[in-house]
Amino acid sequence: MEKSLNFTFSKNERLCSEKILARLYESGFVISKYPLRLNVLLLTEVEFKELLSLGSPSGTKYKGVIELRAQASINASKKRLKRAVMRNRMKRILREIYRHKKHQIYSDLEQAGQYAAIGLIYVGTSEMLYWDVEKVFDKVRRALRERVVAASTPRSTT
Question: Which parts of 114-155 fold into alpha helices (H)?
Fold first, then answer.
């Protein structure tokens, strides 16, 4: 029986833990295609579980997250988008795009046997249309797939 696609962005999928976010921005890699910046921290299943337990002392806060392949944080820079209305609109657009495209990211991660913490940041200086941001997101997602595949293939020691 095939899994049905779930086009939601639930609380479990949101990256809220300050400890995980700190590690993401310290030791993760960056894929940048204007106006998007994607910070990614690739993890094994054991590391993913450990990081989730760091976020919650009782471990109950993130119950059910292990079925997921990634947690994501979505931001828009106040420095670049001065008005809150524009920041909120761009974050809403990014959430919507991520919600529709996350199954592609999950399948790439699943094929590589990886888990990820993802920080998706809008770094543009002006508001953009949904379709324009979606095109850039597709480019970023393809670059992420290449990095995930490269990280999962063993390197020869010759």
Answer: 130-152
d(CA 133, CA 118): 17
Q: DSSP letters of 82-107?
A: -SHHHHHHHHHHHHHHHHHHHHHHHH
Alpha helices, DSSP H, located in 33-83: 45-55
Cα–Cα distance for residue pair 120/98, rounded to 1 Å: 9
pLDDT, tens digit (0-9, with 9 covering 90-100), for 84-138: 999 999 999 999 999 999 999 999 999 998 999 999 999 999 999 999 999 999 9
Give dist(CA 47, CA 92) in Å, integer: 30
Q: What domains can you pick out in the chain, each with its CATH number?
A: 13-151 (3.30.230.10)
Sign of CA pseudo-dihedral 7, 35, 20, 43: positive
Which letter does DSSP use for residue 128 in this model?
Answer: -
* Nearest residue to 38 (alpha-carbon basis) of 111, 126, 112, 133: 133
